[in-house]
## 1
Amino acid sequence: MVSYQQNPIDHNHGSSTHTSCVHGHTHQCLDITGPAIPTSDGNHVHHSESWVMHEQGHSHYYKSVSGPALHLPNGWHVHDWNFYTTVDAGHRHHVMGPDMPAQGT
Ligand SMILES: [Zn+2]
Ligand SMILES: [Zn+2]
């Protein structure tokens, strides 16, 4: 019998959130991050870039790096995100908050 052990670095995260409200609208932000990237202190981060949902005749792009893994009591972890989208149609949006939990460290 072969026991399967997941490499703790072998995961990514999804998230479903909304940007900040600017000029009376928000954009839905459905994100899937890239793979985990180890940091020198033994933690890891994720990169992500994509478009937010088209709204009010425009969309915004973003490219960001997450915060370090924040461990949950059940052994899973999340990352905090805090970034601005590109400026389109004369404004940009702020996106912040945790993504969805993933297994591993
Ligand atoms: Zn992670
Ligand atoms: Zn906008």
Note: The mean pLDDT is 92.
## 2
Amino acid sequence: MIVQNQMETVKISPIENQNPRVKFWYPQYSNISLDAQIGKGTTIHSHVWIADNVIVGENCRIEAFAFLPGGVILEDNVFIGPHVCFTNDRKPPSDKWDTITVQNGAKIGANASILAGVTIGEDALVGMGSVVLKDVPAGEVWAGNPAKFIKKL
Ligand SMILES: CC(C)(COP(=O)(O)OP(=O)(O)OC[C@H]1O[C@@H](n2cnc3c(N)ncnc32)[C@H](O)[C@@H]1OP(=O)(O)O)[C@@H](O)C(=O)NCCC(=O)NCCS
């Protein structure tokens, strides 16, 4: 169930109750599904949307205004910059949703958009403002629109 209104959103505290080590900043300004899984040590800043069927690992940081629709999987130690927009529907509106996986330690810069079905590899770094249409291999920096290889880390 997605919590719809701001007063109710305060009740996302059940998530905190299930996992008191998740740190929320101003949860009343976020929409966090009670069905989302969020790992311990993760910090979620304000105005974040996290839908059903989202899995967030441990020690992640999700900055303000990030949008995580159903099917997004963040492994552990992932950084999601402000205004990052994940998508789950390549040809909207459709009933076919693809997943996006962000593997351990990967970082996504501010305002990046990630196409449904893409995987961001372990420890990879996506530059700010990028439009990511393809898988980003582990340990590489990709940036631009469309995002392309910049260098290895
Ligand atoms: C991707 C990034 C890490 C690259 O930084 P860097 O290693 O110092 O690389 P450089 O600045 O030397 O840039 C290397 C090349 O990539 C290009 N580039 C860098 N960042 C880019 C971006 N976001 N989009 C498009 N191109 C980019 C540069 O123009 C340069 O191209 P050139 O060689 O043709 O001149 C950095 O630009 C970035 O986007 N950081 C994320 C910041 C952010 O969102 N932080 C979130 C917390 S607020």
Note: The chain is about 5% helix and 30% strand.
